[in-house]
């Protein structure tokens, strides 16, 4: 079916779409949304390689590096040989980039990295980080990550990100020089805020709850799917035994032999077909996993809101108490308990000069406090505004992407059914000739 | 109309049809005891008794083509009045055919008689294309068992089809469950059809009694059974078994290997069913997760529900597949294993008969100097051996043919079940695609 004219890329009608093609559709969606960065350059993580070297504690280690290739869009469309920038980066460098982005743009739902270790594996899949299938899927995930950042309206214009794509050596130092690590909120601080905040924006509270539920349901889905994959593997593989026994049986038969023998071959083919089927399903699992991790990024934004809100509330509280103190001092009534107040009651009032000094100090503090409240209020407002914009953007992206994933999953199932029908029809033909 | 005790048919083996008493023949005084034979007029049918009354020997084994038992109802061609209207009951076999004349009230009598019995397994007899009422008797498993034993006793040279297993482990299988009863019923049905198919066994008096008698008189030997010929018991054991002739040895070897292969196939099929059941269990957990996800999504609510529904449909289809395989596939395999067992026994019996003959022959040859003619009992032994071998060979050929058809049917059946399963799943997923894509277009339009 033709493009309906919207920006949405629709995978309609073509039920023979392979997962590779549907991944390309996803990429095309991001490119079409068109950040200025993506309009200029094509990004890909083309290869993965094993390296060995000495690590920080001078021990030999083996690690994988990924080749990031960028090329200018214009050159490619002109048909001339595109200038290819390519550099190798390790997974840990990707992590560093992401952490930088998290700290620098706390209002953004930062795209997640592919998992560090293989989880939710079904038994045939290896959980080994060095396993070539795992490395390959990681490569795809890393490319996806870069494309997501590059298509983000805010993140795509980040300088450090650009340098990541274009500078191999020295990038790490550049990142550290930004001093972003100092700006990171401590976990404890964040947790504290979550418990103590009084008036968080309702929408953020709901979003956080949604993030929790999403994470929980996708985890469950992935777990059950992995178990089901295991079982399906067993079903198909046991059919391979038919191949062998039909072959043996055909040897003692006269007229029935040929039909049995060829049917046996089809049973073998059936058993072998499950490998491809399950590999395709892994793509689907990876797409779900991306949103599993996205759920966490979403919650991070909500927690940041709680933090800024909490700090605003603290500042307001502080200001209020200071104002109260001033009032008491000015009017001589003690409404709030203070040690100074008690001691002065016991040991006599302070001198007018002392009071003056105190009042003056309070005034300054109140002024500062008001500034702080203003600042934090502004911070909070701005955060809420930009975060909510990004959350809305994320919601649309999520709905679109997951729908695409479900479509491609359905297509996979259709393909599997068609293959099954064909194999059994073939076998039936052979049986009929028995 | 008074009911007499229906009498069982004697075996038609070596007797002319005129000596056979039809169960109903005693009822109508108007009818002679010998059933009238009438040519129903269809071309090409061979009468058992030629129009001039010459009997035809029906004891030779039929050809290996399959036999069908049909009751045909023709209007009497003699143009008798309505009241006297007699119907020809023609039983067609591939070769022989006999017919008797009966009035409507005879059918009525028969039907009433049969409905009075109290058993458990319904044996519908064949329907006519016209208005003959179906009649049926009820039998229990042990009646089938009785029949089979009687067949084995009376036709020891023939391969008797097997029954489904007699003993079922209590606590493991629910003997009164629908599935078990249904599976058994199918196997018993097959057993009866195979006997009816057989040119010799189908004439067996016990078989006919089984099909028609009100009460199977199991304890007493049937009166006509005491006639010699069919009831000769072969001596088993006590003779040194010699080497089997090549052709029978080949049969034995084949049976051994075949049993092995069947056993393997049985195990594979069972394993597949097990794996499928476990897969089914996971699917039943998998589908609902999509449902619970949909409960807190807005835009994605319908797609997720759709997926959940699809998975659920596939689960049902898979359940049907495994049930079908359990009920239809495995029992047939097991039946054949039993069949083969009984065939091996027949081969052994054949060996015994041959051994008896050879031993007796040797003893005679030993005394050759006495110049006595070959004693009759040695001759009889020789006859027995030759009869046995002939019967067995013919039955073997028939069995091979049936086996080929049976397994062709079984395996194409298995293929069909799997194809059906995938077709159901395919339909479910294909119907989901437009649902998933629909919203997108709608969204696109509202943009």
Automatic annotation (TrEMBL), chain A:
InterPro entries: AH/BAR_dom_sf (IPR027267), PX_dom (IPR001683), PX_dom_sf (IPR036871), PX_SNX4 (IPR034902), SNX4 (IPR034783), SNX4_BAR (IPR037430)
One Pfam family it belongs to: PX
Gene3D superfamilies: Arfaptin homology (AH) domain/BAR domain, Phox-like domain
Domain PX, residue spans: 44-171
GO cellular component, one term: SNARE complex
GO BP annotations listed: positive regulation of autophagosome assembly; protein transport
Key word Membrane present: no
Signal peptide boundaries: none
Keyword Protein transport: yes
Keyword terms, alphabetized: Protein transport, Transport
MF terms in GO: phosphatidylinositol-3-phosphate binding
SMART domains referenced in this protein's UniProt entry, alphabetically: PX
SUPFAM superfamilies xrefs: PX domain
Family stated for the protein in its record: Belongs to the sorting nexin family.
Protein name: Sorting nexin-4-like
Gene source species: Sinocyclocheilus rhinocerous
Lineage: Eukaryota, Metazoa, Chordata, Craniata, Vertebrata
């Amino acid at each position: 079916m033709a493009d309906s004219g919207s920006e949405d890329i629709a995978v309609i009608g073509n039920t023979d779409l392979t997962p590779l093609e549907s991944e390309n559709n996803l990429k095309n969606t991001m490119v079409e949304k068109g950040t200025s960065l993506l309009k200029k350059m094509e990004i890909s993580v083309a290869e993965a390689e094993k390296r060995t070297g000495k690590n920080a504690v001078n021990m030999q280690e083996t690690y994988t590096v990924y080749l990031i290739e960028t090329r200018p869009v214009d050159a490619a469309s002109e048909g001339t040989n595109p200038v290819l920038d390519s550099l190798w980066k390790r997974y840990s460098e990707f992590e560093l980039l992401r952490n930088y982005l998290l700290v620098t743009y706390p209002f953004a739902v930062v795209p997640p990295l592919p998992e560090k270790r293989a989880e939710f594996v079904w038994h045939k899949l290896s959980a080994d980080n060095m396993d070539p299938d795992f490395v390959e899927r990681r490569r795809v995930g890393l490319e996806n990550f870069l494309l997501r950042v590059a298509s983000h309206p805010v993140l795509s214009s980040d300088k450090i990100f650009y340098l990541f794509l274009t500078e191999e050596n020295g990038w790490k130092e550049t990142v550290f020089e930004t001093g972003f690590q100092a700006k990171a909120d401590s976990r404890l601080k964040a947790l504290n805020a979550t418990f103590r905040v009084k008036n968080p924006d309702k929408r953020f509270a709901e979003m956080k709850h949604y993030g929790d539920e999403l994470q929980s349901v996708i985890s469950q889905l992935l777990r059950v799917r992995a178990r089901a994959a295991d079982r399906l593997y067993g079903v198909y593989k046991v059919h391979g035994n038919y191949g062998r026994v039909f072959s043996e049986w055909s040897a003692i038969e006269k007229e029935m032999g040929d039909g049995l023998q060829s049917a046996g071959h089809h049973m073998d083919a059936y058993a072998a077909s499950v490998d491809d089927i399950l590999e395709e399903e892994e793509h689907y699992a990876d797409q779900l996993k991306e949103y599993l991790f996205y759920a966490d990024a979403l919650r991070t934004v909500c927690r940041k809101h709680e933090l800024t809100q909490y700090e605003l509330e603290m500042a307001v509280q502080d200001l209020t108490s200071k104002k109260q103190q001033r009032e008491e001092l000015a009017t001589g009534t003690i409404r709030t308990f203070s040690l100074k107040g008690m001691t002065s009651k016991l040991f006599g009032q302070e001198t007018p000069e002392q009071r003056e000094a105190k009042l003056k100090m309070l005034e300054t503090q109140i002024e500062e406090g008001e500034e702080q409240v203003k600042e934090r209020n502004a911070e909070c407002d701005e955060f809420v505004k930009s975060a909510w914009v990004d959350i809305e953007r994320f919601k649309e992206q999520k709905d679109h992407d997951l729908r695409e994933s479900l479509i491609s999953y359905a297509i996979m199932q259709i393909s599997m059914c068609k293959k099954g029908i064909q194999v059994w029809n073939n076998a039936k033909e052979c049986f009929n000739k028995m | 109309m008074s009911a007499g005790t229906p009498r069982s048919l004697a075996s038609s083996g070596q007797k002319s049809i005129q000596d056979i008493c039809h169960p109903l023949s005693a009822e109508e005084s108007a009818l002679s005891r010998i059933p009238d034979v009438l040519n129903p007029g269809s071309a090409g049918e061979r009468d058992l008794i030629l129009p001039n009354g010459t009997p035809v020997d029906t004891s030779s084994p039929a050809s290996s083509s399959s036999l069908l038992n049909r009751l045909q109802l023709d209007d009497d061609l003699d143009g008798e009045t309505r009241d006297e209207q007699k119907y020809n009951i023609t039983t067609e076999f591939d070769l022989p055919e006999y017919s008797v004349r009966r009035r409507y009230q005879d059918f009525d009598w028969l039907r009433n008689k049969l409905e009075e019995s109290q058993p458990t397994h319904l044996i519908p007899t064949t329907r006519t294309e016209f208005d003959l009422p179906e009649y049926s008797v009820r039998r229990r498993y042990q009646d089938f068992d009785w029949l089979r034993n009687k067949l084995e006793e009376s036709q020891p040279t023939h391969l008797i089809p097997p029954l489904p297993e007699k003993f079922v482990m209590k606590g493991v299988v629910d003997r009164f469950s629908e599935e078990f009863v249904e599976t058994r019923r199918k196997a018993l049905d097959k057993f009866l059809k195979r006997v009816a198919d057989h040119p010799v066994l189908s004439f067996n008096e016990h078989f006919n009694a089984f099909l028609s008698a009100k009460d199977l008189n199991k304890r007493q030997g049937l009166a006509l059974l005491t006639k010699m010929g069919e009831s000769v018991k072969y001596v088993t054991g006590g003779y040194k078994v010699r080497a089997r002739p090549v052709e029978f040895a080949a049969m034995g070897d084949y049976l051994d290997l075949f049993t092995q292969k069947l056993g393997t196939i049985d195990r594979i099929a069972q394993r597949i069913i097990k794996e499928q059941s476990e897969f089914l269990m996971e699917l039943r957990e998998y589908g609902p997760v999509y449902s619970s996800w949909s409960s807190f999504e807005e835009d994605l609510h319908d797609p997720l529900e759709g997926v959940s529904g699809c998975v659920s449909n596939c689960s049902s289809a898979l359940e049907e597949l495994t049930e079908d395989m359990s009920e239809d596939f495995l029992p047939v395999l097991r039946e054949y294993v039993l069949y083969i067992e009984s065939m091996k026994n027949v081969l052994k019996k054949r060996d015994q008969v041959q051994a008896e003959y050879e031993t007796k022959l040797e003893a005679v040859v030993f005394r050759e100097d006495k110049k006595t003619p070959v004693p009759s009992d040695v001759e009889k032994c020789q006859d027995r051996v030759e009869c046995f071998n002939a019967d067995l060979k013919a039955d073997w050929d028939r069995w091979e043919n049936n086996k080929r058809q049976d397994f062709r049917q079984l395996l194409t059946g298995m293929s069909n079940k799997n194809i059906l399963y995938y077709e159901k799943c395919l339909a479910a997923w294909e119907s989901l695609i437009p649902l998933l894509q629909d919203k997108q277009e709608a969204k696109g339009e509202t943009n």
